[in-house]
Amino acid sequence: TDMNLVHKALGRLKGWKDLRRAETELVKKLGLEKGALTPFAVMNDADNKVPLYVEDSLKAQDKIWIHPFRNTASLCLSMADIQRFAEEHGHNVNFFNPEPPAAPTADGVAANGGGGGGKKAATSAAAAPGQESTLGMTATKDGNYPEWFQQVCRGAELIEYTDVSGCYVIRARATYVWKRVQRFFTDLIEEKGVVEELYPMFVSSAALHKEAHHLEGFAPEVAWLGSTGPEPFDPEKPDGKGKPLKECIALRPTSETIMYPQWAKWVRSHRDLPIKINQWCNVVRWEFKQPTPFIRTREFYWQEGHTAHATDKEAEDWMWMILDFYRRVYEELLAVPVVPGVKSEGEKFPGGKITSTVEAYMPNGRAVQAATSHHLGDNFSKIYEIVFDAADGVTRSFVHQTSWGLTTRSVGVAVMVHSDDKGLVLPPKVAMGQVVLIPIPYQSKSGENPAEAAKRNEEIRDKCERLAAELKRADYFEGDSNKYWKIRAYADTRQDKTPGWKYNEWELKGVPVRIELGPKDYDKQEVVLVRRDTGEKIKGVKWTDLTARVPALLREIQDNLFVQAKKKLDDAIVKVTKWEEVTPALNQRKIVLAPWCQEEETEDEIKKRTTEEAAQTLANEQATQPAAAAAAAAGEGEEEYAAPALTGAAKPLCILTDDDPRRPPLTEDTKCFLTGKAARCWALFGRSY
CA 155 from chain center: how many Å? Predict the structure, then answer.
């Protein structure tokens, strides 16, 4: 075996460096002597901090010679024996291919694979036909972020690709997260008198064009339906099977132009107000940018809420209340910290008066607009003539409106923020399965009656089933929602998979707590709890304590995920006061907090400058590291090649509210970081999806 090739392969797989070296203290802890190579060392790694990797070519070998802690002797074992030994000591055998991958193309996708639309290259989580399917991740979060995210989504069975680019099947595990978001948010708005209605997904051309400025914001993304029949209408074949519609119909990009003509029929008096309506539905926006599951798709699911009020203040107060509800969805339910604020003039909702937003930070340095709540003023009511008679019986006024939306993007945000190189990590509140119990079978000894071992293993499996049933009957309290929920527990008693395989599978699928029950644990009436978020093992937990310990552990995991994500967000925000500081901060994958004059023309200037400076940074990287870049693409060479800086324009993400603790003081001496004029606000700037 070419060890240089092996080292490079593991380096690509995990982003590791200096693979030939190990600290003397670690070598001693594992009980090894210099030059010894043995999987037996895992028995001395009680904390499970040292992973075990084996080359793919050894997988099917009946005889493998290994060192027994020193290189002066050798033992002959089968791979099955090695796997059994590792699993009994709480370790998995991770197989890898040392051959270099195909060189990536400019968009980061391997040359033998594609993007959306069902053309995704095969990964270890979903192998191509004719290849063996193995469980696990090959891309890393810090290495190839786009590929890592797609592997998490596929491997954890969150999505499946279709033959329409940008449109995905949202599978059960992700749908469950969305259902929990729906339930949490519905409880909040129903307490405020919001009712649900359902509106058509089609909108006429006349209605869509009635508010020109509103349409202008969505025009490039509107999808139109123009014909019926077994095939599309072809004007060159008027006698064909496809028949044109008398008028093209748009698929809703949003529902203002569908709802508000109806409201004009219903509102007559101040007694008809306020109107508070929400609907859960799908919309279509035919994005032309690179599709990304959940984050940027052509069809997505959302809630869109709409209200009509008698006064401007009522509408604005409602907008802020809904924005705080969105903050609670992300922080209390999804354990994702967000920054609330106001959109700039150039970024606000088309036709709106004020757009408020919650912004989230992704680990690759990009921001995500997580949800928005709009104060529409009376702009739309004037167009659609939604007028009411005031209480004085004389005054006729236009209503003041709001609209607000939260999408399935929230699922992708949670996945991006929390998941790791092993796969999906989900907060317990939204995990479809919160606990999985895995029996560790008893291995019969030489000369022992196999029937006794089989009986003992049946007892262990049966106990796992009974413990799962007890957990499912137990309640646990989610303090912030003031509700009790049943624990979602499952016993994985499949006999055709090893415990190690099951560990990998449920880690990949993001189950927050794993419970292991082996023969020794069974004799002591104990189990071992393993946390998905930290990997910590909690040994010696009595069966009788499970219904109390597990709910507490689920709450600990939920809280820890938020704390860790909050630290990353805080560390990512960098205060700058001069333009020269912006691009260096962005190149470090940060979000910039800067004083700003808010002049509308500066928004385009900021986008233009950051685009140009990003292009120059990329050109400099290619000029100074061409050999390293080529070697990294080919999987060769010793040079370290850092991940390239993000490209594209930076823009205003949000203007911080006056009560935001992140907001520095704003005085007469505070100058705009771009123009040098008097600053009117502190705002966050960054690259976003």
Answer: 13
Q: What single letter denotes the amino acid at residue 261?
A: P
User: Which residues are CB-neighbours of 464 under 8 A, at least 6 positions away?
Assistant: 437, 438, 439, 491, 492, 493, 515, 517
Q: Are 512 and 426 a contacting pair, CB within 8 Å?
A: yes
Q: Decide: 409 and 397 in contact? Cβ < 8 Å.
A: no
The rounded distance, in Å, linking the Cα atoms of 511 and 489 is 10
Compute the half-sphere exposure of residue 61: CA atoms within 13 Å on the CB side of its CA: 16
Confidence of residue 220 (pLDDT cuts 50, 70, 90): confident
Q: Residue 487 in contact with residue 550, Cβ under 8 Å?
A: yes
Closest CA to 254 of 292, 291, 211: 211
- On the question of a cis peptide bond just before residue 274, with omega within 30 degrees of 0, the verdict is yes
**Cα→Cα distances 32→36, 40, 679, Å:** 6, 9, 63
- Token duo for residue 122: 């095969």
* Cβ atoms of residues 308 and 399 within 8 Å: yes
Residue 457 has pLDDT above 70, yes or no: yes
Strands 195-196 and 275-284, bridge-based pairing: parallel
DSSP secondary-structure letter at 332?
I
Helix axis angle for 546-572 and 409-418, nearest 10°, is 90
Of 426, 377, 430, 429, nearest to 401 by C-alpha is 377
How far apart are alpha carbons 644 and 588 in whole angstroms? Answer: 10
Kindly report the number of other CB atoms within 10 A of residue 435's CB atom: 26
pLDDT class of 16 with cuts at 50, 70, 90: low
Helix 409-418 and helix 145-155, axial crossing angle in degrees, nearest 10: 110
CB neighbourhood size of 9 (10 A): 21
Residue among 339, 469, 520 nearest 413 (CA): 339
In whole angstroms, give the CA distance from residue 361 to residue 570: 10
Report pLDDT for 78. 76
**What's the pLDDT score for residue 34?**
67
427 exposure class (CB count in 10 Å sphere: 0-12, 13-18, 19+): buried
Q: Is the pLDDT of residue 605 over 70?
A: yes
Burial 231-258 (b: 16+ CB within 10 A, else e): eebeeeeeeeebeeeeeebbbbbbbbbb
Helices (DSSP H) in 509-545: which residue ranges?
519-524
Integer Cα distance of 203 and 281 in angstroms: 14
φ, ψ dihedrals at 666, nearest 5°: -120, 110
Q: DSSP label at 249?
A: E
Phi/psi at 377 (nearest 5 deg)?
Answer: 60, -145
Q: Report which DSSP code applies to 677.
A: S
Is-above-0.85 flag for pTM? no
Do the Cβ atoms of 654 and 367 come closer than 8 Å?
no
Q: Cα 654 from chain centroid?
A: 21
* DSSP per-residue string spanning 78-122: -HHHHHHHHHHTT--EEEE--SPPPPB-TTS-BTT-B-STT-BPP
- Whole-number Å distance between alpha carbons of 367 and 373: 18
Which value, in Å, is the radius of gyration of the alpha carbons in the chain?
Answer: 29
Give the residue, 595 or 26, on which the prediction is more confident: 595
d(CA 354, CA 378): 12
From 201-210, 213-222, 521-530, 601-610, the region with the lowest mean pLDDT:
213-222
Count of residues for the chain? 689
